[in-house]
Amino acid sequence: MTFNEFNFNPRLQEGLDAMGFSRPTPIQEMSIPVILAGNDVIACAQTGTGKTAAYLLPVIDKMTRTDHRHLDTLIIVPTRELAQQIDQQVEGLGYFTGVGSISVYGGGDGAAWDQQRKALEQGTDIIIATPGRLIAMLQTGTINLSKLNHLILDEADRMLDMGFYEDILRIIAHLPASRQTLLFSATMPPKIRQLAGRILRNPKEITIAIAKPAEGIRQEVYICYDRQKSLLLDHILNTVPWKSVIIFSSTKEMVKKLYQQLKRGPIEIRSFHSDLEQQEREEIMRAFRNRQIQILIGTDVLSRGIDVEGISLVVNWDVPPDPEDYVHRVGRTARAETTGTAITLVNEADQRRFAQIESLIGTQIQRMELPQGAGEGPQFNPEANRPSSKGGSGRKDGHRRPGPSNQKKRGFGPPRGKKF
Question: Beta strands 41-45 and 180-185: pairing type?
Fold first, then answer.
């Protein structure tokens, strides 16, 4: 199937042709006709499958076929990064249609608030907003949602995880009842079903590979002690082919530590976490997209809401707290039907969580042998290897923390004379 078969407005099709899009992904092929027909939709598809275009294309197409233009569509998202990403996609897909959008999110200073408020007062077709900032704008009377035709909730499971359930209901109270509502989520926990039952009318349900990484991702795991992770990271970066890399850690403290240790090499590296100012976060993401930054170290805020093509390698320094977050982390690579590699470092304390990940995705991830010089790793026994409070080292793996002399000898960071 090709996009031409949807019979989009020629101006919208021109934008697709200019961007080199010819064939829809499965979620797009299944969702677009249902949305064009005016149905409410609850759609479940993993990250990286093209779900943003699955709802933007039919909504933009419908807007191009109406004479009276007003605020038509509200898209609610969990993070500012996702809001910015969708705003950019509207600009690209709707370039020849005249359809415009504004992203509304918190953070920054008072100037950002004023800029967003003035842009909203001037009018737009689509608003992409985080819940907190949108509620603040509604309280000032800046936004009129009385003629809204489409409500879209993207990354709905993430929003509920972040505690936005009541905020979403508050926002919906400002919307007309006669609207089309589209709910997109990577997973479908009971809370999502509950929300869908309250805000959707006779929805059509679309499901694509629930909670499973894309086929193009080569998944590998090293079972190791914490003291071996530094050597393993060097080994991975020197042996696995890559163009752009994301290294994930569950805490911003470890993100900062890894950045300090890795930045001594010749490769451009930056860290990405919640302590950074909004402007700095935007500059980092822009540089990463433009390949000015080759390696990005970040928390799980990076696992959702960014769409960067060409990320060939994802490294999980640790196992994410929620098994479903693993799917989002590794989904940063192998996007748009490309291929990529995702490697996870699993210590003894994380083995139980890693077993839950394998249960969730329904497959055993390939175990890799530790490289020469790394020593022996622990046995994989998720039932036996659990965090222990015994011992004075404070280490989850029960091993002594290496002193500065040991770290220097081991050489955390780029080996001399190598690419990284």
Answer: parallel
